[in-house]
Design brief:
The chain has 230 residues and is mainly alpha-helical. Helix 4 runs antiparallel to helix 11 and helix 10 packs across helix 11.
Length: 230
Amino acid sequence: MRTTRVASEKESLIPLKQPTIPRGDLLQTVRRLRSSPLSRLVDSRMGAFRKNHDSDYEVWFSELSFCILVAASTARSGLKAQNRLGPRAFVSMKESQLRRALKSLGVRFHNRAHYIVRARELGDFRPAVLSAGSIVEARDWLVDNVPGIGYKEASHFLRNIGFPEVAILDRHILRTLFEAGCLPSPEPPSGRDGYLQKEQTMLELAREISTSPGELDLYLWYVKTGDIVK
């Protein structure tokens, strides 16, 4: 699940746990997984993302729609909707039709169809992303111009279209990094500066094991959930 959740007042009174997975053990686990059969699935996912990079507008918009949906629902339900509807539906369905289709496929927050339809107003946004001065600037552009997404969702989208240099700081990743003693809190970052600050931890871990943050995300997500979606 790619969601963020603000802790309630009651939850904020509960002392945070001490790290339960030492940083060195976490990195060792990832190294072991990279030498296991699981690596074939991760390599396949990363290969699909690279293929998306050179795909047409409909594929990019389908990936953007997926990230808009999973911002408030599960990755599995978002992927199911994406696969069943196909790229064309996200660029052509009327909002009411899309909303009904998403609801029938189990997307909890199917009203996010509104954000998808609004995002169509951007037209073919690939040149804006590809011409950005850096991946950080590309992400800033997405956050500023695409309704319904923040830095986490923009990072997710960029990874899924072949830019693995950014970190997807969802609740599973934040919790894993906190439990390894890499972050002082598992709470989601607030705003751009907060995101960039916490992202540095992920970038450093990725450099340490000679991989990209986007690939490391898949392994850490598997460590926490036992699953790999995308």
